[in-house]
TrEMBL record:
Keyword Transferase: yes
SUPFAM superfamilies in alphabetical order: PLP-dependent transferases
Organism from which the protein derives: Microbacterium allomyrinae
Name the record gives this protein: Cysteine desulfurase
Gene3D superfamilies: Aspartate Aminotransferase, domain 1, Type I PLP-dependent aspartate aminotransferase-like (Major domain)
Taxon lineage: Bacteria, Bacillati, Actinomycetota, Actinomycetes, Micrococcales
CDD domains assigned: SufS_like (cd06453)
Length: 439
């Protein structure tokens, strides 16, 4: 299967990413770790440098020319990035990343639970016996904040299990999400399995019982056309560095009525209207959640990343990466001793459920090599110029579900090619024999 070269000019795209021209260990770089962090096109690097060189100033805090220009660029970036996910600018809160966004939501709900905020905030308060539902596939960033919130409020944390093929057990979800459920937090795309979860179905279950939905869109925003309002989620987070943008910037999307009712988490300058020595009044969203100095140059660079992705077209990006995913999956299945996680053919494990068919995926596969530790596989590939991820990928419970402590993960992006996949597969085919674990 070939990638749709007629849709994407891959030579031109790759030329936009300076780091892809580097060599690693004397070999041309094959970068298959975009699930951890993506490479940045020159346009993104230029946007940040241009701001810092020509317009650097604090936003929302000055009346001089540079401050006004910086503020305009900053808010224009919000408009651009919000539009990328189908939102209005007032529905997008800048954060330092998805982890910060998820903690913001969890701690804000915690503040509501102790009586802080406007009268409408009381609707988010958790009490002992209330329930928070997550899934077995969550990144630690969408698990630990809810563990902490449950511990602080007396709520009970429950999880939706996965089938042996990595798909969510939706029958279990329907049983778990009840009148006691107050929050349902789940990933759009698993960072280990690459499977696109049934967002609309989970939102419907949550909405039927009045529960708040929180979506982790880190692994979907760079790879799929994304319209968060159309998905119906109440809140969602994404991370700039996974979508061709810089580090230190992310977004929290919220339905307007939800953001307006949530109390703030971080407090200080830039998020207030009136302050006395005894109390403070807060700005409306999104500024209510943006205390202190903001990631101005990073937001502007993220907007450049979004414009780059929009210029290519997210439908074309998805089609290209879907072809890479199919090529990689077929190649991995052909190598003896490879067990794919989230794959009906090779991923069987002791647990619940039979294969449920072929779910929608992004271009990401995690796998175990029989007889060879994941870290050894990673070092073997790295010596041949192939960069992959090894470890538990911040998803220890999911690895434990499949009887593993670590796996190898290869993840593609807009700039990867069939040749990248083939080089990776060719190198991987020699791992077991090199370590004396098989032919």
């Amino acid at each position: 299967m070939s990638s749709p070269a007629a849709v994407l000019d891959l030579a031109a795209i790759r030329a936009d990413f300076p780091l892809l021209g580097e060599k690693v260990n004397g070999q041309p770089l094959v970068y298959l770790d975009s699930g951890a962090t993506s490479q940045k096109p020159q346009a993104v690097l230029d946007a940040e440098i241009s701001f810092l060189t020509h317009a650097n100033s604090a936003v929302h805090r000055g009346a001089h020319t540079l401050a006004a220009e910086a503020t305009e660029l900053f808010e224009d970036a919000r408009l651009t990035v919000a539009g990328f996910v189908g939102a209005r600018p007032e529905q997008l809160v800048w954060t330092s990343g998805a982890t910060a966004g998820l903690n913001l939501v969890a701690y804000s709900i915690g503040n509501a639970s102790v009586g802080r905020g406007a009268p409408a905030s009381a609707g988010f308060a958790l009490r002992p016996g209330d329930e928070i539902v997550v899934t077995e596939t969550e990144h630690h960033a969408n698990l630990i904040p809810w563990q902490e919130l449950a511990a602080r409020t007396g709520a009970i944390l429950r999880h939706i299990p996965v089938h042996d093929d990595g798909t969510l057990d939706t029958d279990a979800a329907a049983a778990l999400i009840t009148e006691r459920t107050r929050v349902v937090a789940f990933t759009h795309v698993s960072n280990v399995l690459g499977i696109v979860n049934p967002v609309v179905e989970l939102v419907a279950l949550a909405r039927a019982v009045g529960a708040l939905t929180v979506l982790d869109a880190c692994q979907s925003a760079p790879h799929l056309p994304l319209d968060l309002p159309a998905l119906g989620v109440d809140l969602a987070v994404f991370s700039g560095h996974k979508m061709l943008g810089p580090y230190g910037i992310g977004g929290l999307y919220g339905r307007s009525e939800v953001l307006e009712a949530l109390p703030p988490f971080l407090t200080g300058g830039s998020m207030i209207t009136t302050v006395t020595l005894d109390e403070a009044q807060y700005l409306p969203p999104p500024q209510r959640f943006e205390a202190g100095t903001q990631p101005v140059s990073q937001a502007i660079a993220l907007a450049a990343a979004v414009r780059y992705l929009d210029g290519v077209g997210m439908d074309a990006v998805h089609a290209h990466e879907k072809a890479l995913e199919a090529r990689m999956g077929a190649g991995l299945r052909s190598i003896p001793g490879i067990r794919l996680l989230g794959d009906a053919a090779t991923g069987a494990a002791t647990g619940n459920g039979a294969a449920t068919g072929s779910p929608e995926r992004v271009g990401l596969w995690a796998f175990d090599v029989d007889g060879v530790h994941a870290h050894d596989v990673g070092q073997f590939l790295d010596a041949r110029g192939v960069a992959v991820r090894v470890g538990h990928h911040c998803a220890q419970p999911l690895h434990r579900r499949f009887g593993l402590t670590a796996s190898v993960r290869a993840s593609s992006a807009i700039y990867n090619t069939d040749a990248d996949v083939d080089t990776f597969l060719d190198a991987l085919s020699g791992v077991r024999s090199f370590f004396g674990a098989g032919s």
